[in-house]
Design brief:
243 residues, 19% strand, globular, TIM Barrel, binds calcium ion, alpha/beta, 35% helix, single chain, binds SN-glycerol-3-phosphate, 8-stranded parallel beta barrel
Length: 243
């Protein structure tokens, strides 16, 4: 078994409010070696980390991120929905996460959430932010919007990209190559060991989401995936420690 990158999905989101600094910090404490996060853009162009296009589910405010100014987005309570003890948690900026990751040598998987809402210039903005921290070799950009990944690869071919998909791709590695991506960010329903091996022969890696069952983590490691994206990084960390 090879080792894998232990990506905490939206941080340690099984036990902490997703996409908040406490979820990211705790993930690293629990043994994550990577953080997966979702980026959206405010009305005035700030890059903020929140999964949904709308603020409602995690803050209670019935508005789109894209129609709200950063000053308001950044002061919202993004923790109480999960548990009252997290009432002080806020929606972070991409910069806040990159600072933490740089300090702790953690890989960051930035998912561009531009499938439903269009964010003109999102790719360039994310890339310039990553470059300003000199973290091109510590980041992988993924998206379900594959046009967007082509744009990322055009702007910054040195930053790796990953094709997000649920299922149904024929010869996924070939498709990844056609987009210029070096990784397949596959749903756990879309992984067969022989495909992982075939992709590896063509230098395309698999990072698989969202895997919370330790037995499935072990199977995927045996299949040779490069990364596992989980809500419970402590479970994967325990496997990697041989417990
Ligand atoms: O990046 C893997 C996974 O996060 C994609 O789905 O909906 O959790 O953003 P979602
Ligand atoms: Ca995501």
């Amino acid at each position: 078994m090879t080792t894998v990158v232990n990506y905490a999905h939206r941080g340690a989101s099984g036990n902490y409010p997703e996409n908040t600094m406490i979820a990211f910090e705790q993930a690293i404490t629990l043994g994550a070696t990577g953080i997966e996060t979702d980026v959206q853009m405010t009305k005035d162009g700030r890059l903020v980390l929140i999964h949904d296009e709308k603020l409602r589910r995690t803050t209670g405010v019935n508005a789109l991120v894209a129609e709200t100014l950063a000053d308001e987005v950044l002061q919202l309570d993004a923790g109480s929905w999960f548990s009252p003890e997290f009432k002080d948690a806020r929606i972070p900026t991409l910069e806040q996460l990159l600072e933490l990751a740089k300090r702790t040598h953690t890989i960051v998987n930035i998912e561009l959430k531009n499938g439903i809402v269009e964010y003109p210039g999102l790719e360039r903005k994310v890339i310039e932010t990553v470059q300003s921290y000199r973290m091109s070799d510590q980041v992988i950009i993924s998206s379900f919007n594959h046009y967007s990944l082509i744009e990322c690869n055009r702007i910054a071919p040195e930053i790796p990209t990953g094709i997000l998909y649920m299922e149904g791709l024929y010869r996924p590695w070939k498709y990844a190559k056609s987009v210029g991506a070096s990784a397949l960010h596959a749903s756990r329903y879309a992984v067969l060991p022989e495909w992982v091996a075939e992709a590896a022969q063509h230098d395309v890696i698999y990072n698989v989401f969202t895997v919370n069952d330790p037995a499935e983590m072990k199977r995927l490691m045996q299949a040779g995936v490069a990364g596992i994206i989980t809500d419970y990084p402590e479970r994967l960390a325990a496997i990697l420690r041989g417990q």
